[in-house]
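Handout, tutorial session.
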Amino acid sequence: MPFVTIMELSQLLATFPLVVASLEQKIALLSSPQLFGRSNIQTRENSQLNHQRRAQAQADLEDIQGGELVVHNEYGVGRFKEIAVNSDGLEEIHLRFRDAVILSVPIDQSHLVSRYVGMGGKKKKTPQLSKIGDGKWSKTKKDG
């Protein structure tokens, strides 16, 4: 019988939609997605793709000027303030939202921030800055 690591077994089980079970032996094998409802297995390709996405997002941020509108995937429309170094020596993106709330986004989560593009059309209306915690952005995202 060939030796199989837990990671290899988990990856193998993740490809099967059925649960492997034996009632006589009172045993069941479940994959992580089946057990937890999500997959946390990261392949080398996924890791490289995530690295490429982060690098592209960081490059895109370099083109954004202070005061420009941006969209944070979780919090909504804000204004880009700056990229600064925090007290731990790590870079973070500072975004300003309604009520002068400043959100500090770690640079490794820069893929969550993008330039605001707008809806187009003849009348370009500047959107109101999102208020963090009011739930409107979640509803807007869901309805969009």
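The second record follows below. Compare its token runs with those of the first.
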Amino acid sequence: MYIPDSYLDELIASDIPSGIDLTTHVLGIGAQPGRMEYYTRDAALLCGTEEAARIFGRFGCTVVEALPSGTMLAPGDAFMTVEGPAAGLHMGWKICLNIFEYYCALATKARQMVDAVHAVNPLCEVLSTRKLMPGTKPFDVKALTVGGAFPHRLGLSETVLVFDHHLTFYGGRSASLTCRSLRRRCARRSCSSSRAPKTRCAWWKPASTACSLTRWRLSRLRSWCRSSRPSTRT
């Protein structure tokens, strides 16, 4: 997955708005060469080293070694080593540390969820919603896919997803009739309802390949996965 340079530049600008690390500058140590190593305290699924390397490159630093996203790390494992001037190392240090802390955690959690689902039904998949913190989507999506999950819907413009409040404005029609109508109008778009089946609702057809199971208890989800046909994606 490629994250645009413009997004990385925004991360840099938010942490270094004036383009200078004042502490390093006033100490007069910016030109001194240094070496920095990132390691993990806990077992984790690695995410973000490719973007971190691009960020350090902007500060005149060289990545000596970096493991790729998707590498499973054991406690104490070093996963990235960078060399360069002290000014560049300090400017890139915290930006990249934040990327690793947040998105290794998200990738790790996603992998745990995927492994738990696959243990019950290997052909079930975990899909993420659009419930993301504003401004974090590029790394959120990368971390989820590194963890083995898939984005269900990246934005409002790519698919049709009917919620109960849509039906209220639409005259209270049933989800089944509404989805059939929309599928005819949006023949090349995915059309679905957000209502999750209690067992087998009228609109839940055997040929369906996906449905929304938000706010379900894990025990209920596990039972539903076992009873569903193998190709179901949840």
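Points raised in discussion: Helices lie at 5-15, 22-27, 49-58, 86-120, 137-146, 164-169, 175-185, 218-227.
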